[in-house]
Amino acid sequence: MPIKKELTDKLKEQRKKALAAGGQDKIDKRHEKGQLTARERVERLIDPNTFQEQGLHVEHDCHEFGMESKFLAGDGVITGMGHVDGRPVSVASQDFTVGGGTLGTKHAQKIARAMDNAGDLGTPLVAINDSGGARIQEGVSSLSGYGQVFYRNVYLSGLVPQIAIIAGPCAGGAAYSPALTDFLIMTKTGASMFICGPEVIRAATGEQVTMEEIGSATAHATVSGNIHFVAEDDDHAIAITKKLLSFLPSNNMQDPPHHLNEEIALTSDKSINDILPEDPRRPFDTKKVIEKIVDNGDFLEVQEFWAKNIIVCFGRIDGIVVGFICNQSSFKAGAIDIDASDKAARFIRFCNAFNIPIVNLVDVPGFMPGKQQEAGGIIRHGAKMLSAYSSATVPKITLIMRKAYGGAYLAMCSSDLGADRVYAWPTAEIAVMGAEGAVNILYGKELKSAENADAQRAKYQEEYRERFASPYQAARLGLITDVFEPSETKRVLSLALHNLLSKRISRPPKKHGLIPM
Q1: Count of CB atoms within 10 A of residue 512's CB?
Q2: Residue 190 above 80 pLDDT?
Q3: Which of 15, 179, 352, 453 is most deeply packed, by most CB within 10 A?
Q4: Active-site residue 74, yes or no?
Q5: Which domains does the chain have, with CATH numbers?
């Protein structure tokens, strides 16, 4: 018996009403600002014809302040599942054209269900944030909704990758859900993220600040370190999301999407030999080394504009997905400071949670000295790196390119912190401190009385480097796996990674370690 026409007509009418969102006039205003709608963002992210929406016909149930007469399509959020490059992903996209995208009870319920699906099915979660915050008309119920979302963010942490796109306002308590995810992508225009806006700050403290200073993508990418990627617009944010997902497994039980070839590439690249400057004190751009090592020179840098003295990025070596942690001597001489410690530790823990091998490229003079660093807790922050590396059970490979001094040598994953392989170039120097400082301590009295102090100092420094800082000295002690010339780097790392992919380590049963916070 065929379905009655009036029923299909009603279905079409209901769907049309729900899909109209906040109305064409509001949609047009967004387009005028160069922004996509919530539904358009989902359509650009998800493979064509694969999105299955959940909760299209959901409506709010608030009866206060005249809300009983208002229709809010989908209660201001689009949720469901679709494929990104052929893999299932859970999505929640807030719709600012519908009630300002404010979060009410049903809005939160839809997001919570999308998060539950991600956890139950082992799929990444992508949350697109564009909301005016808690729906005031629903009072404490809207706050409860945020609590339910935060709880699930924590539950999903380390279980499935969580990515947040900040594509509009994200104020007050709403900012904490993105902060609990693994990666935050924020658009340059139309987006803001803050706990207290300029007016609240001015009223509470008298400070005069602008939104650009506290809530913009630039502020969060360069000063606070709250976000990981800056996007030019919505399309760019979606492109970053897709590239990021291409390096990540769908959940913690899977391996990353390696693209293994039948044969291992064993070629050398002599051009790497020319990257290091002759003067060991001159800085160089470590990104040039990364480009030579990764397949096709392609890598995705994370938090590019914050704590630039350390580089963290994803790439592939001979098809194997790798997370890189690298000192950058062209910024602050590559010394590890508070922000660099936090940046590296967080990235290490993410890679470990999702089975991504870690490669460390080392050129570090030490931890950053100074009163501000000591007062800010460099001991506590630096200890995060020690904790993160020591607890990581994924394959860990360390390559010492030049300097590796003092505690920073350990903090960049020495063999004593569980590195499976520690390699060095002939240019490596591994010691408690640099030759210049060591000689001043060891031979201070002799140098004061020496007739030709400069010549004598140079001689002592050369002797110190040979006896105490040479990579061969560390190799004789079994702390270095091998020393090779830079041209062999990709070949050696590729072989090591292939050999280590089967690594499995069990740790003592416990709830979790207590990383220094």
Answers
A1: 7
A2: yes
A3: 352
A4: no
A5: 5-245 (3.90.226.10), 270-425+484-500 (3.90.226.10)
